[in-house]
Write a structure and sequence with these properties.
Elements: H1 2-43, H2 47-50, E1 61-64, E2 67-70, H3 72-82, H4 86-89, E3 91-103, E4 106-116, E5 122-133, E6 136-145
Parallel strand pairs: 1-6
Antiparallel strand pairs: 1-2, 3-4, 4-5, 5-6
Length: about 150
């Protein structure tokens, strides 16, 4: 009986681990798809398309060199002011260093960004928090500095 109980517990534990790992891999893949779409949109100077990866809410938080910005619209306006033309936005590439579950339906993504531009390249680091909202992965907080 002890052997049966051991194997039952082991099987249940392994099953939970496999399910969690499977969810992690799918979530990570889905998050990276959002970020790839952001690279493409940004590189086409489609800042509104880039912002589709963000939570369209007044509760969105962006922290950068200029301090804290709250809200999707204000974040978009800041991007439009800082990157008014294709020469300013350039070509965006992300290098992802870590994707980790935080809790529930949230992950942090840590990495670097690289902007290849005619007006001079710009590089920096970021930590962003993704949350699954209405079945879609959205950035709810972003801290970027370059």
């Amino acid at each position: 009986m002890k052997k049966l109980l051991f194997f039952l517990c082991f099987g249940l534990t392994f099953s939970v681990f496999a399910q969690n790992n499977s969810n992690y891999e799918k979530d990570k893949t889905d998050i990276l798809v959002v970020m790839k779409a952001q690279e493409i949109a940004w590189s086409n100077n489609d800042l509104e398309g880039f912002m589709q990866g963000y939570w369209k809410s007044d509760s969105l938080k962006f922290y950068g060199a200029s301090g804290l910005t709250k809200g999707w619209r204000q974040t978009l306006d800041n991007y439009k002011n800082g990157y008014p033309t294709k020469e300013h936005s350039g070509t965006l590439t992300f290098k992802i260093n870590d994707v980790s579950a935080i809790e529930g339906n949230s992950y942090w993504v840590i990495g670097k960004y690289f902007l290849k531009r005619n007006v001079g390249d710009a590089n920096g680091v970021f930590i962003i928090i993704f949350k699954k909202i209405d079945g879609k992965w959205k950035i709810v907080a972003d801290m970027s500095c370059g």
